[in-house]
Amino acid sequence: MKDTASLARAVLQPGNSLLAAGYCMYSSTTILVFTLGGGTHGFTLDPTINEFVLTHPNMKIPKRGNIYSCNEAYSEGWDDNLKQYLKTIKTGKGESGQRYTQRYIGSMVGDVHRTLMYGGIFCCPSDTEVHHN
């Protein structure tokens, strides 16, 4: 790109203009998850053949999970409605009647991947205390 404005126009596109999206996660296994617009698919690296193998075709977030993921260290600056909602699901007084448990890795890819696989909620809400810009 010749200038910053051209670069910004090329990069800052609405989500419905995306051609592909994905992530790769390395832990006890290496997983590649991506979409080309016709479904989301997960591939696991098979170290014996050094290739990614389709292990999770047509991934979909389950309709309901029981895990929520957010950094509650910032909760004092969160909107009161969000704090009340989290209290509701933690105590099992939400729509499902099921108590949610909190899991927060601090790595967005890991937290989002768990939500994609098992359902639940991932959020990174704005706060007025620590990040008050």
Descriptive labels:
single chain; 133 residues; alpha/beta; four-stranded antiparallel sheet; three-stranded parallel sheet; 26% strand; globular
Write up this protein.
This protein has 133 residues and is an alpha/beta fold. 23% of the residues lie in helices and 26% in strands. It contains three helices and seven strands. The strands form two sheets. A four-stranded antiparallel β-sheet has the order 1-2-3-4, with helices on one face. Strands 6-5-7 form a three-stranded parallel β-sheet, with helices on one face. A hairpin with a 4-residue loop joins strand 3 (40-46) and strand 4 (51-59). The longest helix is centred in the middle third of the chain and has 11 residues, at 80-90. It starts with a helix and ends in an 11-residue tail after the last strand. The mean pLDDT is 91.
Concise synopsis of the structure shown:
The protein is built from 3 helices and 7 strands, in the order αβββββαβαβ. It has helices at 4-11, 80-90, 108-118; strands spanning 21-26, 30-35, 40-46, 51-59, 67-69, 101-102, 121-122.
Mean pLDDT figure: 91
The amount of helix comes to: 10-25%
Structural class: alpha/beta
Shape: globular
Strand content: 25-35%
